[in-house]
Design goal:
Length: 76
């Protein structure tokens, strides 16, 4: 029972650390060309920029990033 608890606790800690690191990576990312997606280069819709002025990706690329759990193709 203790081994199962330790394993579950370790997995939860790892997941939290991964989520925090992904979040911190996105915070540090700057727009290469404001108003354009850092990943695909397409325009970021005005509604998205109005809702999130610091957005560096279009909705499609942001969705892909979240699914992959990575910073994306244009990351450094």
């Amino acid at each position: 029972m203790t081994d199962a608890f330790d394993r579950a606790s370790s997995l939860e800690t790892t997941d939290r650390e991964r989520a925090l690191n992904n979040h911190l990576s996105r915070i540090k990312e700057r727009a290469e060309h404001p108003g354009f997606c850092n990943d695909c280069g397409n325009d970021i819709p005005e509604r998205r920029l109005a809702a999130n002025p610091d957005a560096v990706t279009c909705l499609t690329c942001q969705y892909i990033r979240e699914k992959r759990g990575k910073r994306g193709l244009g990351s450094r």
